[in-house]
Amino acid sequence: MLRTMKSFTHIGSNKKKTIGATKSTKKDTILETSRGALIGTEVCDTKTYLPIYRLYARIRYALPPTGVRRWRKPEPLPPDWVFSDANSQPRDYRTFGNICPQLQGEYAAVDTSEWEDVVENLMHEDCLYLNIWVPAGVPMPSEGWPVQFNFPVSGTQCGDGMQQNYFDPIDIFREHREDPRVLVSANSRVGVLGYLSSEDLMKDGMDLRTRVSESAGNYGLWDLRTALQWTYDHIHLFGGNPNNITAGGSGLITALQLHYDAFQSPENRIIKRAFLYSSAISIQPDPANSYRPTRQFDEICHQLMIDTNLPSKEKVRILREVSAERLLTVVRTLELDFLPVTDGKDGFVPAWLMQSIWNGELGRRLKQRNAQVVIGDTCSERSYYEHAGRAGIATSRPSRGISSREALMSKLKTHYPRDICDELIKKYARDITDWNSVYCDIMADVQCHAPVRGFAQCLFYGGMSTQDVMRYHIAWRPKALDEWISPGLGISHVMDIPIWFYSGWRVGFSKKDKHDVLIFTRAFSKFLKGERNGGGVIWGTAAEFEVRQFSSNGTVLVAEDQMWARKLDVWNMLREVQKGRDTPRADSVVQGMGNQWG
């Protein structure tokens, strides 16, 4: 059993200040349902003794993805599953479940155990569990509370279902007694266990009759969809409204989940609203049987001394017998990250994904079902990549400086296709010789600033309005954050967690800081509840190029997006490169609901 890595706090900071206590006490609580009984945890305020929320953790939503289930789509629970134990007694759901074995994450390079109580998450492949936080001490509406389903903010390489203390939503429940919500977050497969793909894996899981593969990749995406489906089917047992589910978190994961949901038949759609933090999708993922995933698969086989000339099923059989610990040791030596792929017939990511975004089809479908989207970014993405490269913490692999155009190309190719890399270097490099700086500019734009704006513009093109697509920009950084994160990093993705989850309440936010955060997030809380503009949500933006801005001085205002034109230029460049490829027409493919290889 592996143990988890450290938390993301104290990035680049030598100060030692402990994270504040939640000022709460805990006691057991039992929930009786038609599916059996659960022992959960009720969290109460230490001053008033009133209950704040109830947590039910380590709830299994799919069968363990171990043994022959490794690198296959998740298998749902059997129809007769129950919450209770084998003796029909309430089962213990008071502690978090295993998280997927993974490399040390983006913000986990510093040992923070001296400064905070790090949650000791155990890592094991049996990790498909979710956690549910339920309001306590407030009346439940007849239709149930709205549900906020959180996708891991760390993306595809690492992450968990809100199982660290800086994700504790206690102050969300304290501050929103008038607008309570149920929170759900799931552990899923990440990294090599969640996103390894290749033609060999595809063949191993191929049904020769239907030509559909169970092992083409995107296992982490399938996990989260399965968790979302479980939530839809059973959240009423916890007081949640299955017809009022908002899902979001990592912009990339959310964009892919939202797209998948929008192209399901009406009765199978779950997501009513979505929120995308600091990213979306701008590049069609490589096909599962293409060069990059195959090279990655072959490199792993080579490191493990598995003959790549063996039949596909034999190679995969041997790989499935390799321990997770050994796999992670091998992965640490690889250059390529594990990413979503275009995964073939009946897959999660269709070959026409980007075309259906560009031509407005996704926006049209969301508009037809009256869906809403919150999407935005922070102001200092570039400084994050600059610091991550300097500290060598981005992927827990040795950090190498970029000293030439060739080195820049090599680095970019670990993220993007060659034709896109060529155009990016043409656009950004010119006569500049500070290649590390060029790399930071490119990553900030392609990973964050360009997709956030281009994705939103395409939703507008599909017929959605500023009442449907609500854009934000965060330039505010509280002084208290200096105790945890180096001031030179500004405010970038994931560093806004103290704002969205109010964990800033416990890291020294002043009274004014809290007031400013509540002003900024008030409209977001109404959005989660399902109140539209004119009926509760006052976002304020009236034009596509406007954002609800959390300014550096703490004021909240509607402002013109200063990056709008420049970053859309990057988005358009990425689109033109991809449109020049031999891919199926989006309109014809979408109309037929086909999903073939591009």
Automatic annotation (TrEMBL):
Residue ranges of the TM segments: none
Cited Pfam families: COesterase (PF00135)
Domain Carboxylesterase type B: 28-532
Highest taxon, organism lineage: Eukaryota
Protein name: Carboxylesterase type B domain-containing protein
Taxonomic source organism: Cercospora kikuchii
